Every structure is written in C-alpha cells, then in structure tokens.
Amino acid sequence: MTGKRTLSETQSALEEFQMTSRELEEDLEQIDCDDLERTESRKKSLLDLESKYNKAIERNVILENEVEEKNSLIEQVQRLKDELKDGELGPPTPSSEPVSPQKKEIYNPPAPQPSQKQL
C-alpha cells in the first residue's frame, strides 16, 4: 500500500507541479506582453520627444540668427549716426540740376469754331 500511496502522491505532486508550471508560463507571457507594450509606448514617447527637441533646436537657431542680424543692423545704424554727428557724412547735396518728374505734353486740339450760318 505504501507503493500505491507513494505513486498516488507522486502523481498528485506531478499534476500540481505541471499546473503551477503552466500558470507561471502564462504569467511570464503576460509579463512579457506588458513589458513589450510598455517598451513600445516608451519608444514612441521618446521619438515624439526627440522630434519636439529637434524642432526647438531649429527654432532657436533661426531666432539666434535673427538676433545676430538685428544686432548687426543696430551697430550699423549707430555707426552711421556717429558718422553723421561727427560730420563725416554730410547731408545729401543737391545735384546741379534739380530733379523734376518728366512732364508729358498732352495734345489738346483746338476747340471747334461755331459754324456761321449763311443767310
């Protein structure tokens, strides 16, 4: 009887082990799926963030170029003001002949004469 009992206990233990093994495999598959979903979600988030970062960098470069251009123009205007103030640049001198817009002559035909009636 101990042999049957041991065989029965062994079979029961084997069945319990197989059930536990299946449950653990299912849990592992579920964990793998969850991990995969989280990984994909994180990857997508990182790609979106990278895209936003690149756009921000491009915008900053454009703004930096505009600031440099503005500063250059400010320096140029100040230099011209200083030159004008110091007399290096005189006021614009008029040329010897005044510039006037060209006048177009318009042909005006003579007014018609009233016709004389013969009597």
UniProtKB/TrEMBL annotation:
Compartment(s) of residence: Cytoplasm, Cytoskeleton
Segments crossing the lipid bilayer: none
Source organism of this protein record: Rhizophagus clarus
Cited PANTHER family: NUCLEAR DISTRIBUTION PROTEIN NUDE HOMOLOG, NUCLEAR DISTRIBUTION PROTEIN NUDE HOMOLOG 1
Chain spans, region Disordered: 78-119
GO biological process: centrosome localization; chromosome segregation; establishment of mitotic spindle orientation; microtubule nucleation; vesicle transport along microtubule
Keywords per UniProt: Coiled coil, Cytoplasm, Cytoskeleton, Microtubule
Name of the protein: NUDE domain-containing protein
Top-level taxon of origin: Eukaryota
Primary location class: cytoplasm
Alphabetized Gene3D superfamilies for the sequence: 6.10.250.1080
Gene Ontology annotations for the cellular component aspect, listed alphabetically: kinesin complex; kinetochore; microtubule
Domain NUDE, residue spans: 45-86
GO molecular function: microtubule binding
Biased composition (Basic and acidic residues): 78-88
Pfam families membership: NUDE_C (PF04880)
Family: Belongs to the nudE family.
